[in-house]
Design goal:
The chain is mostly beta strands and about 120 residues long. Helix content is about 0%, strand content about 55%.
């Protein structure tokens, strides 16, 4: 069974930085894409950033130039470096992994940005 273990969330002041990590386990197949989604209270879950096994990336417009996604394919781990955080970045951040066209999700980690 695939498990995604997230870490790195917390409380930070506006303008600060956080780094989220997510390690996948329980699969012997290649992970096509890994990344992060987020869900703020009363809103739908939205894409933050995705990176493929080949290194192609896709970012939400709202985080471009502030967030950087990266991955370690050998360790099945994905990271997102979040800089210049804003109060509107406050949300639960979910790790995502696509394996054989099947989506898998972490349990989520809270990121709170105070103004």
């Amino acid at each position: 069974q695939v498990q995604l273990m997230e870490s790195g969330g917390g409380l930070v002041q506006a303008g600060g930085s956080l780094r989220l990590s997510c390690a996948a386990s329980g699969t012997r197949f290649s992970i096509t894409a890994m990344g992060w989604y987020r869900q703020a209270p009363g809103k739908q879950r939205e894409l933050v950033a995705i990176i493929t096994s080949g290194g192609n990336t896709n970012y939400a417009d709202s985080v471009k130039d502030r967030f950087t996604v990266s991955r370690d394919n050998a360790k099945n781990t994905v990271f997102v470096q979040m800089n210049s955080l804003k109060p509107e970045d406050t949300a639960v951040y979910y790790c995502y992994a696509q394996i054989l066209l099947v989506p898998h999700w972490g349990q989520g980690t809270q990121v709170t940005v105070s103004s």
